[in-house]
Each structure stands twice: as structure tokens, then as C-alpha cells.
Amino acid sequence: MWVGGLKWMFLIIGTMIGAGYASGRELWEFFGAESGLAIFIFALLFTICTAIVMSISHQKRSEHYLPILHVLMGKRLTKLYDFMIVLYLFSTTVIMLAGGGATLEVIHLPYWLGIVFIGGCVVLLFVWDTKGMTSMNAVVIPILIICLLGVLIAFQSLKGFPIEFRLDQQHNWPAALTFTSLNILPLVAVLAAVGNEIRHKGEIWVASLGSGLILGGISFLYNESLLQVAGDIMLYEIPLFAILKHYPYFMVLIMSALLWMAIYTTAAAGIFGLISRLRGYIKGKAWLIALFLIALMAPLTTFGFSTLISILYPLYGVLNLYVFAAILLYPILHHAANAK
Known about the structure:
By secondary structure, this protein is an all-alpha fold. It has helices at about 1-15, 20, 25-30, 35-60, 65-105, 110-125, 130-160, 175-180, 185-190, 200-225, 230-235, 240-245, 250-280, 285-295, 305-320, 320-340.
């Protein structure tokens, strides 16, 4: 139970902590000042949604997200959201590739070469198919979490931990709804693809509670740290570097490597979700399908990392609200239907 639960927990966190999140750009777009309560609500809602999606996936023994959408939304809306999920996974993976290019610019690697490198690494991962994906997350994500927490705690220590929480100054709480809904579609896409591999209901609780607690804790600490460098954030494509500006250059290199790893895990998660959906239409090995998708995405990365996030993420956050509501209402409606 614990081994399986931790495996899915790292898959969930790997899906969440990508270019937008690990760089700080996504948190800054949605949270910022007066957001402590918003982050707590996000952690709670994310835990509940994860548990519900995993439970449905386990019951349906699903291999892709269509059976889950049928249960949540009915057949008519499933067609619309099927298209939306494909578009979402495609466009957010483009953002990850762009983030990979932007991150490697810190070591003076050309933007286009950085994109080729991360694209090649994603394709290589799918030589091992699903096992490659879960094994990579089990290794990379714990390292990423420890290092990110280490940097944030060290930064707060330098500042004397000036963190305060006042309930009367938490006016940004609605951001929890759009931020959670933003992350619902990739969650559905990735967790639905492994429904037939969940062995025990205990795995669902370990994965959902663990991911909610870890993501909530990191989000709060990260957001508080960004608030303390708010005046510098506009000068950086990647807000994390505003926190790191007082650190030695080797720390910037280490965190750039970890940021790249976070981008890589989310790019892989996006391709994983697309492959699981397209396998009914495209026959062939996973790595060949991944290569085809990366080739389609590469030209779109020219729009730039922060531009793509600032336009697409808030838009998806609003569009996903319906799926978010359907997931939260599912236990109530399902219980009412069974009671009749």
C-alpha cells in the first residue's frame, strides 16, 4: 500500500511541479499578497479532487481519461472536454519545452538547443513506457522537493522568518478555486492513465493526502518568499532567480538544474497523457509517438515562456472550473443516485 501510494504521490507532484510552479511564475500569477488562506484551501481541495479522481480511475480500471469524463460529465460534454484536455496537454507541454530552453540559457546554451535537449530526453524516457515515467518521478521528485524546501527555508532564515498570517487580511481566497481548477485537467489525464495499475484503496489515500500536504506546504513557503522579493520579480523571466540573486553562482546553477528537472517531469507527464489518449488512433511504440508530438510542439515554443504562462494559465483556470465542480459534486450525486 505504502510503496504504491508513494509512487502515485510522486507522479502527482511531478505533474504539478513543472516550469510554471517550480519557477515561481505560476504561484505569482495566482497568489501573491493576502494568499495564506487561499493556499490552505487549495491544498484541501486538491487532496479531495485527487482522491475522487483516483477512486473513479480505480473503479473503472481506466487506461485513459475518457471513462472518467463519462462518469463525471456525461457523454455530450465529454466530447468537448476531451478536445480541451488534448489542447491543454499539448499547449502546457509546449510551455514546458519553452521553460526548458529558458532555464538552460543560464549556462549560456542557445534557447533552441535547450528545447532540442529537453525534447530528446522526453522521447528517450518513453523507450520504457509507463515504467520509465513512474521510476523517473520516484527518483527526481524527492530530490527536487528537498532542494526547493532547502533553498526556501535558507532564504527565510536569512530574512529572520518574517512570515505572518492574519485572517482579516486574506482577501485573495478565491484564487484557490482557479488555481486548483487549472491543475485539474492534467490530474485527470495522468491519473486516469494508471487506473488499472492501482492495486489497493489505501494507495489512493497515501497519494492524495501526501501530495496535498507537500504541495500546500511548499506553495505557502514559496509564496511568502516571493513576497519578500516582489520588487525584483519583474526583472526576471524566472522569479526563483530573484530569490537566488544573493546566493553564490553555484547555487544558481544547482537550482537551474533542479528547475530543469521539474520542467522535464511535467513535460513527460503531458506527453504521457497524450500518448494514453492517442493510442486508440495511432499505433506504434510510445517513444515514436512522443517524438511525433515533440516535433509538432517545437515551433510553438518561439512565443516565450512567461508570455505563454501569463496568457494560457489564467484562461485554463477559468475554463476548468466546470470539471472542478463536477469532481467535487461527484460523491454527493453518486451517493444520491445509489440511495434511490
